[in-house]
Design brief:
heterodimer, A: mainly alpha, Alpha-Beta Plaits, 2 domains, 2 strands, about 5% strand, B: mainly alpha, 3 helices, about 70% helix
Amino acid sequence: MKINEWSRHGIQALWALLTNSYLAGFLQGKIYKGNLKKICVPGLNCYSCPGAVGACPIGAIQAVVGSWNFKMAYYVIGFLIFIGAMIGRVVCGFLCPFGLIQELLHKIPFPKKIRTFYGDILLRKLKYVIFAVFVILLPLFVVDIMGQGAPYFCKLICPAGMLEGGIPLVLMNQSLQSAVGWLYAWKGVLLMITIILSMIIYRPFCKYICPLGALYSVFNPISIFRYRVDDEKCVHCGKCAQTCQMQVNPVENANHPECIRCGRCKKACPVGAISCGMRNR
Amino acid sequence: MAKIRESRWIGIVIAMLGILMMGYGICRGEVDVVLAKAVRICLECIGIG
């Protein structure tokens, strides 16, 4: 089945709505406090978003690794390994609200859209460094006198927390407004940079920064759900590589770590040589 | 190596490993830490401090 771009956005929007369905939170400036928050969502979705009904896996890893009594997040990392081994970066293409926001921003006309640039490939390794340093090492080793580490990625880098939690909660809570300082300004600047870059480059946060994408990318080549190119059908026209916004060539590697499995290549193929699924053939 | 990557079994084995890790994490109480963090406004996440 070939999936249309706007149908995919529909799925992304539906998933974003489902995982942020505590609508009362937006009206009251509060967050959901129920038991569903024991469960992680697969995509990047701040748990301080007023609508969030699940836990952000990246925030949850830092919370467990940075806690004084646990130093390894078996539950959350096990969850991400399971999702990664099942579907790989399908999560990025279909189940990440922050990915959807960047994609919609990229549809805004801009004088010059950049597909790639010198150092693009090297810069994509940055997300692995961010995962190792800000999600694991800093919360694990830079701790207070109680032995607790802060969620350094959420605190210093994540623009999703600012957009989904910081802006709505501060707008609706006077006590939070009085506590706004340099960190809020810093995260505001990062959010603005992300928004502007998203208009110019396709999903810049996902390509260069996202630690969740970094983790899922490792599983793309071995996941049960995967893409396949039929060599006998392929006419090597290059249309799949041309249409890919993540600059992946499916003919060279149909399950490249950078592929977010959006299905554009499948739709672009004139001879139907690209397929995907859980079955072997 | 390419054959190993082509096989679905590696994905199935790793998915099962993920389930085992989740189970172990749940047994030792990590879920409570996740819940405790998720039900309070994360001041670091929203840029307050």
